[in-house]
Specification:
Elements lengths: L1 H35 L6 H15 L1 H6 L8 H5 L2 H35 L13 H28 L5 H7 L1
Helix pairs in contact: 1-2, 2-6, 5-6
Length: 168
């Protein structure tokens, strides 16, 4: 199961990287269009869609690689029992909030598909298309937080040592 989850987080990170390359391509296409007198409709919108996709798809991978910003001042000053309780509480809140985010992002994409909602820009893209990577990224973040909570509950581990050392 661990290998499957890690592969899932890594795959999402690779897709996020591809989205960033897509942002670069859209920006370069827009610049080239201005320089050489042609117009490609929707490059700004597509760059925005790709940026949102890359941001959301990278969330779970970033969390699992311990690259999210954490404020550990209270954890560092707390006795071990309180530190563990605070960590479990914060992971529980994160599971709840990321689950809600994932649910509402998925619901938004589903409703956009049902109502045939399209962008108001020159591209007239069906909005569910750029909303799907956002929903997938939010749901993967939920899975990653559940993963962290399960690891914390079963292994009894406290906040990662690298988190605690980062503040010092």
């Amino acid at each position: 199961m661990r290998a499957t989850l890690d592969a899932l987080y890594d795959a999402a990170a690779w897709v996020a990287a591809a989205c960033m390359i897509g942002v670069l391509a859209m920006v370069l296409l827009s610049i080239a269009g201005r320089q050489f007198g042609f117009y490609v409709p929707g490059t700004d919108a597509y760059a925005g869609y790709l940026m949102a996709g890359s941001s959301f798809l990278a969330l779970a991978h970033t969390l699992k690689r311990n690259e999210h910003i954490r404020v550990t001042l209270v954890l560092n000053l707390s006795p071990p029992a309180l530190r563990r309780a605070l960590q479990l509480w914060s992971l529980g809140v994160a599971v709840l909030l990321s689950g809600l985010l994932g649910w509402f992002c998925a619901r938004l994409a589903w409703q956009s598909r049902q109502f045939h909602d399209i962008s108001t820009g020159a591209d007239a893209t069906p909005l569910w298309i750029p909303q799907v990577p956002m929903a997938i990224g939010a749901l993967l973040l939920f899975v990653a937080f559940v993963d962290e909570l399960v690891l914390a509950l079963h292994s009894g581990r406290e906040a990662r040592e690298t988190d605690l050392a980062r503040v010092e």
